[in-house]
């Protein structure tokens, strides 16, 4: 049967022939002398190690027993050393050269270069044993093997590139890297120098996920990138710039059934956005805000179908929160009608409601949230947020969110609105506190005393710890004080500060009937005006944007002026 040139060049060996290839013809291999003596053992042992328990059930009991016996005898057999590593790399280089030579020599005769391809694939499988000796990784670098390995990601046969991805995933496993810091640093730097992110993404673009092996290859590729970023978190922007960001956005919005790869892509997007302003900017430039909003719109009226889809939804919300830390993305969120979507989610009472509340908090906070705050009131957002303020919903068991987290976000949103809106919108906001015989003021004071008690309890605990430290002759230094302050914030101090800020703001600028109601409740509950003033003074001392001294000073002055008027 005649084949055209395109079909011949695109030819890939049958996967089963690769998987079933044995050792029967090894005796006739001209390069056998270069192979490590442990080849047969390594293949069997690595096969056992890499198989999941479900896959192991496909092995006979005899096979399991033999492999387990080999594992037990491992210490008595030849260990991987520098000399064995060099032999393995030399064999790999020979297989690569041989395969390239045969492909060039017989470009129109796949059957003539297939044998060399199978040998190359087998050799790559044998290299997995290197992951058991991370202390030898620096020898890989010295032998220039990392560059050679990365080049195989561009191999015409995706079976070879997928095998290489599997190898890289095992070599970069975080637990393995942690065994040898020197070896890990050498390997990761060499991979980064070889532009591994770009090469991995290029390979991703040609994988067909309708084929199981290639879908697994996509998942494992993302695993390699995650391993590298876990070890070198500051290189997230490199990954994004080398094509990862466009790929993730394209894959997330692809019209394909939900699967593990879409979940993994959402997780990777959240990782690269977490601590990098550059990646947030790139996301905005690639219309990523619209992509995230379109994907989340699915959960406006429908709950996720299962726990994996729920996890993906949470990842996408986390991506949105990270992206909104960049001021330019606040404008994109506003223009993309993100506020309207979050407001609808709050009203629908689905599983997306808690995360929508968190996104809304990020969108409205700070001076950059002025336009969003104004728009939120224009779309009747006060009708949505105040019922949530008046009554905290029961925690969702599947999501596991606490009441305190919900209350913090709601209180933070109201505080942001008070800071950012002007004229008519501000008056509408202040008038809310007089409705239903000042019911919202009563709720505000109820929350004030709740969080005052929580902070009082942690303050007492911290004081006992300080006394114990002094008895042991230790000084409470500045880093320890900062740690104690963060502990107080996490236990409820931040929410208490916002509650007391709202109290002072509405007493000073709201309708005249509000302050008497606040003072009445304080007297009935034995509250202290001095304690409230101290809380706001402490808030003022720590508030503000660290990037802008002017903004920080202005906010401090505004808070202290409220204290003086209270």
From TrEMBL:
Query: Which keywords label this protein?
Result: Coiled coil, Nucleus, Phosphoprotein, Repeat
- Where is each Beta-catenin-like protein 1 N-terminal domain found? 60-165
One Pfam family hit: CTNNBL
* Any one Gene Ontology cellular component term annotated for this protein: spliceosomal complex
Composition-biased stretches, type Basic and acidic residues, lie in 13-24, 34-47
Record localization: Nucleus
UniProt region (Disordered), positions on chain: 1-62
Coiled-coil positions: none
Q: Which Gene3D superfamilies match?
A: Leucine-rich Repeat Variant
Name of the protein this chain belongs to: Beta-catenin-like protein 1
Species of origin reads Branchiostoma belcheri
* Source taxonomy: Eukaryota, Metazoa, Chordata, Cephalochordata, Leptocardii
């Amino acid at each position: 049967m005649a084949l055209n040139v395109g079909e011949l060049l695109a030819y890939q060996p049958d996967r089963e022939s690769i998987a079933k290839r044995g050792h029967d013809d090894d005796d006739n291999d001209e390069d056998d002398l270069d192979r490590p003596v442990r080849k047969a053992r390594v293949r069997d042992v690595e096969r056992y190690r890499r198989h999941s328990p479900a896959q192991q059930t496909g092995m006979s009991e005899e096979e399991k027993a033999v492999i387990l016996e080999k594992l037990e005898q491992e210490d008595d057999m030849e260990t991987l050393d520098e000399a064995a590593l060099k032999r393995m790399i030399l064999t790999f280089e020979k297989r690569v050269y041989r395969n390239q030579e045969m492909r060039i020599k017989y470009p129109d005769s796949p059957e003539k270069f297939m044998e060399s391809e199978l040998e190359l694939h087998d050799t790559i499988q044998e290299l997995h044993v290197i992951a058991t000796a991370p202390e030898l990784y620096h020898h890989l670098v010295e032998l220039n093997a990392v560059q050679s390995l990365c080049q195989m990601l561009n191999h015409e046969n995706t079976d070879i590139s997928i095998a290489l991805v599997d190898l890289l995933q095992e070599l970069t496993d975080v637990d393995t890297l942690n065994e040898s810091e020197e070896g890990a640093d050498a390997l990761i730097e060499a991979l980064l120098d070889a532009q591994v992110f770009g090469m991995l993404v290029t390979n991703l673009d040609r994988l067909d996920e309708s084929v199981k092996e290639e879908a697994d290859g996509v998942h494992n590729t993302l695993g390699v990138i995650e391993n590298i970023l876990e070890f070198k978190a500051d290189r997230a922007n490199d990954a994004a710039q080398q094509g990862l960001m466009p790929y993730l956005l394209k894959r997330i919005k692809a019209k394909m059934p939900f699967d593990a790869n879409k979940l993994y892509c959402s997780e990777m997007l959240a990782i690269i956005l977490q601590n990098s302003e550059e990646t947030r900017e790139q996301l905005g430039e690639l219309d990523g805000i619209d992509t995230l909003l379109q994907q989340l719109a699915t959960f406006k009226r429908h709950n996720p179908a299962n726990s994996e889809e729920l996890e993906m939804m949470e990842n996408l919300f986390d991506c949105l929160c990270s992206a909104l830390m960049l001021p330019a993305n606040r404008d994109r969120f506003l223009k993309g009608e993100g506020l309207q979507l979050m407001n609808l989610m709050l009203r629908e009472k689905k599983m997306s409601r808690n995360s929508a509340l968190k996104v809304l908090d990020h969108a409205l906070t700070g001076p950059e949230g002025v336009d969003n705050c104004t728009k939120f009131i224009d779309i009747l957002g006060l009708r949505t947020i105040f019922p949530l303020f008046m009554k905290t919903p029961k925690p969702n068991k599947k999501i596991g969110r606490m009441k305190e987290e919900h209350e913090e976000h709601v209180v933070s949103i109201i505080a942001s609105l008070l800071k950012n809106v002007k004229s008519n919108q501000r008056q509408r906001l202040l008038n809310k506190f007089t409705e239903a015989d000042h019911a919202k003021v009563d709720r505000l004071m109820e929350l004030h005393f709740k969080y005052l008690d929580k902070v009082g309890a942690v303050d007492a605990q911290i004081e006992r710890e300080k006394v114990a430290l002094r008895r042991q002759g230790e000084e409470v230094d500045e880093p320890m004080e900062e740690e104690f302050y963060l502990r107080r914030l996490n236990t409820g101090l931040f929410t208490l500060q916002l509650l007391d800020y709202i109290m002072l703001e509405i007493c000073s600028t709201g309708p005249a009937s509000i302050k008497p109601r606040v003072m009445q409740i304080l007297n009935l509950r034995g509250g202290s005006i001095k304690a409230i003033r101290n809380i706001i003074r402490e808030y003022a001392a720590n508030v503000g944007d660290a990037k802008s001294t002017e903004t920080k000073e202005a906010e401090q002055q505004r808070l202290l002026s409220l204290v003086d008027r209270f």
